[in-house]
Amino acid sequence: MGCRSPILAVLLLLVAAWQRADAVDFSTVEFAGKTFTVCRVDVRKEHLELFHRDQHGQPFKRFDRLVVGLQSQGRKLVFAMNAGMYHGDFSAVGLFVSGGQQLVPLNTANGDGNFFLKPNGVFALTGKGARVLDSSEYPKLQEHVILATQSGPLLVRNGRLHPAIREDSQSRLFRNGVGIPSPDNAIFVMSEVPVNFYEFATFLRDQLHCPDVLFLDGTISSLYAPELKRNDFRMDLGPIIGVTE
Question: DSSP string spanning 184-202?
Answer without folding.
Answer: TEEEEEEESS-B-HHHHHH
